[in-house]
Design a protein that fits this description.
mainly beta
Length: about 100
């Protein structure tokens, strides 16, 4: 028997699936030029068509805070269980959370 592969995208068939009308779509310029400030809260929403700066699938849907910028990417602090992790994520995989009034 062949050993089961354990790649970065294993068991992500439904998790990283796009809607039929979004398939093959490249992120819009507004999405790529997203300007996030330090301390802003963001949701990690993985864009499966862009492989650069893609976080691991375990962080899909997690909310984090922006610590700073590193090149084109952002450093995002995410709480995972009782630990805090710092991820380096490109803006096409991030969604801004609107400030509550």
């Amino acid at each position: 028997m062949v050993k089961h592969s354990r790649g970065n995208r294993t068991r992500s068939r439904k998790l990283l699936r796009k809607a039929p009308r979004e398939r093959g779509a490249v992120p819009s310029l507004g999405r790529l030029m997203l300007d996030l400030k330090e301390g802003e809260r963001v949701v990690i929403k993985i864009n499966s068509s862009t492989h650069n700066g893609m976080p691991h699938r375990r962080y899909q849907g997690k909310v984090g805070t922006v610590l700073g910028k590193r090149g084109k990417s952002y450093e995002v602090k995410v709480k995972l269980g009782d630990k805090e992790k710092v991820l380096i994520v490109r803006p096409e995989h991030l969604n801004q959370i609107k400030a509550q009034k």
